[in-house]
């Protein structure tokens, strides 16, 4: 787990170590704009962003939608305000084994086969 944040004063954003594999930031009132700080983490396998303020389709800005690190295996996003349009951001997560989307704003029947989801060992959608 991460014990130290790296701060770049010239542009006031955090710079995570590119070798980071696990990150838990649950319950921190983070919003969609925070996700831009996770762009350059190719080795990230576990991320817990539950109990934050992420919403909608995870748009970072008006012209940019967030893309998850492709090696991600475990993703915890419970207790946010994500809606169905966010599901397309999971399309390229070929290694994803665990997914928790409980307590979001997902509606209707969700197809967790082929289109967005690859073989999951565990998923939780309430």
Structural notes for this entry:
- This protein is an all-beta fold and 126 residues long.
- The chain has one domain (18-124): Leucine-rich repeat, LRR (right-handed beta-alpha superhelix).
- The chain has strands at residues 7-8, 13-14, 22-24, 46-48, 55-56, 59-61, 64-65, 74-76, 81-82, 98-100, 122-124.
- Strands 3-4-8-10-11 form a five-stranded parallel β-sheet, with no helix packed on it. A two-stranded antiparallel sheet has the order 1-2.
- The chain is globular and about 40 Å long.
- Mean pLDDT is 80; it is low at 1-10.
Describe the structure concisely for a colleague.
One of its GO terms (cellular component) is plasma membrane. With 126 residues, this protein is an all-beta fold. 0% of the residues lie in helices and 22% in strands.
Could you give the topology of this structure?
Layout lengths: L6 E2 L4 E2 L7 E3 L21 E3 L6 E2 L2 E3 L2 E2 L8 E3 L4 E2 L15 E3 L21 E3 L2
Parallel strand pairs: 3-4, 4-8, 5-9, 8-10, 10-11
Antiparallel strand pairs: 1-2, 6-7
């Amino acid at each position: 787990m991460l014990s130290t944040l790296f701060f770049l004063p010239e542009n006031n954003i955090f710079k995570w170590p590119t070798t980071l594999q696990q990150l838990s930031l649950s319950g921190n009132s983070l919003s969609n704009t925070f996700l831009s700080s996770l762009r350059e983490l190719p080795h990230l396998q576990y991320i817990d962003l539950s109990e934050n303020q992420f919403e909608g389709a995870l748009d970072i800005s008006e012209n940019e939608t967030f893309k998850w690190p492709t090696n991600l295996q475990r993703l915890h996003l419970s207790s946010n305000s994500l809606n169905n349009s966010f599901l397309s951001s999971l399309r390229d997560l070929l290694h994803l084994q665990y997914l928790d989307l409980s307590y979001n704003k997902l509606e209707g029947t969700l197809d967790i086969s082929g289109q967005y989801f690859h073989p999951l060992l565990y998923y939780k959608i309430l």
